[in-house]
TrEMBL record:
<dbReference type="InterPro" id="IPR036237">
    <property type="entry name" value="Xyl_isomerase-like_sf"/>
</dbReference>
<protein>
    <submittedName>
        <fullName>Metabolite traffic protein EboE</fullName>
    </submittedName>
</protein>
Length: 414
């Protein structure tokens, strides 16, 4: 949905089956019309499309299927404006864990996959939008062992940027690539992400590399890299890092690092770890996804790869007061989970800032964990769940926009 100055809004179809194009097409045709009918019956409806490596190969190699997709979208008054090209392989119904980052940006496969998705987007999206590609945070941190690894990763990333520059020159379609920082990855915190861009992408060496790939002068390459490469800011991820969400977003804005997608996601929060809380957390440990957890204790942050690791450490030493935040996506419309809380306040802070000065032209709701949520958090079917998240976000945006208009006098009758 086009929200005017506040950008385009969609929910992530990563929540649905979509490991192959047949699966993704079936999910799209099943769920998107049902959600549109309830949230945007009379207005064009924006779609965030998950494309796996297999789906990208299918669509890239089949012009007829791309035409079929374009026609179906037009017939249903829908348009794609963003693609999740982060998980390359299977994502549903099996253990994913750290494999979700593979192939990473050190590999040829990641470059080829991303370029295929860019070409598909240039073909299927309306000329009125500049579509974005959500991609992995370069690599799982433990797999990056030397500066040479970072150099290889950056070189591959800039090859993808060069492809986007060439694509726009050939088709007049601007496609944007957005890296998504995540706990335990090469890009993890907002500060680390800014440091990476300054030291590697925007550096003299980075610009020279892009000049060599494109044949353009440095005066043009320096601007084009910002035109095509930025970040996804996942509010849930950065909340797990205990970041001040509004301050983190301001730091990106002030540094000129584009936020090509602002992602509304809430993480599980345990304000005080107790025996009762640990016992109840068992419902959240049986998951196919990583559950990176950060512990705040005595003014110090400790990071653990999974919630189960945090529980094991607590059982060995349960003394002291501590708070946990864990990378388990929970419904954004909930703040109180009955014994636990969520990081929903970070979403509210981000939307208030966005309503004042828009941070991104792409907004997305990303709660993909419906299939592994504890039963007591599932109310209604998946369509009910998506609509409830959508409605909450729209209401929060409306309140933030009204507060902005009141503060600036824009809402006054003249």
């Amino acid at each position: 949905m086009d929200l005017g100055r506040l950008g385009h809004l969609a929910y992530s179809t990563l929540v649905h089956p979509g490991d192959t194009w047949d699966e993704m097409r079936a999910s799209l045709e099943t769920y998107a019309p049902a959600v549109k009918q309830r949230v945007s019956p009379a207005e064009p409806y924006g779609v965030s499309l998950r494309l796996s490596g297999a789906s990208a190969r299918t669509l890239a190699g089949d012009p007829g299927e791309r035409t079929r997709l374009r026609n179906w979208l037009a017939q249903h008054d829908m348009y794609v404006f963003t693609v999740n090209a982060f998980p390359y392989g299977p994502f549903k119904g099996r253990a994913v864990m750290a494999d979700v980052y593979e192939p990473d940006w050190a590999s040829e496969e990641r470059v080829a996959y991303t370029n295929q998705v860019a070409d598909i987007l240039a073909d299927i999206t309306p000329a009125s939008v500049s579509p974005s590609i959500q991609t992995a945070p370069l690599a799982f941190g433990a797999n990056v062992r030397a500066e040479e690894d970072v150099t290889r990763i950056t070189g591959n990333l800039l090859r993808a940027v060069a492809h986007l520059i060439d694509l726009e020159q050939r088709t007049h379609r601007r496609v944007k690539l957005a890296l998504e920082p995540e706990p335990f990855c090469l890009l993890e915190t907002t500060a680390e992400t800014l440091d990476y861009f300054r030291r590697h992408v925007w550096s003299p060496e980075g610009i020279r590399t892009l000049c060599g790939l494109t044949g353009l002068p440095a005066s043009e390459a320096a601007g084009l890299v910002r035109r095509h490469l930025g970040v996804v800011f996942d509010i849930g991820h950065q909340s797990v890092e205990f970041e001040d969400i509004a301050a983190a977003l301001r730091s990106l804005r002030d540094a000129g690092l584009p936020v090509f997608k602002l992602q509304a996601a809430a993480a599980l929060r345990v304000p005080e770890v107790t025996e009762d809380a640990v016992a109840a957390l068992g419902a959240f440990t049986d998951t196919i996804y990583l559950s990176q957890t950060t512990e705040a204790r005595d003014g110090r942050l400790t990071k653990m790869l999974n919630l189960a690791d945090a529980i094991d450490a607590w059982r060995k030493d349960p003394t002291g007061t501590r708070e946990w935040r864990t990378h388990f996506h929970v419904p954004i419309f909930l703040d109180d989970l009955g014994g636990f809380r969520t990081t929903r306040s970070g979403i509210e802070d981000a939307l208030a800032l966005h309503a004042d000065v828009p941070l991104s032209d792409h907004l997305e709701i990303e709660t993909y964990t419906w299939d592994v949520l504890p039963a007591h958090l599932k109310t209604g079917d998946i369509t009910d769940y998506i609509v409830r998240e959508w409605t909450w976000l729209r209401d929060c945006l409306d309140r933030s926009a009204a507060a902005h208009d009141h503060a600036t006098g824009q809402g006054e009758v003249r």
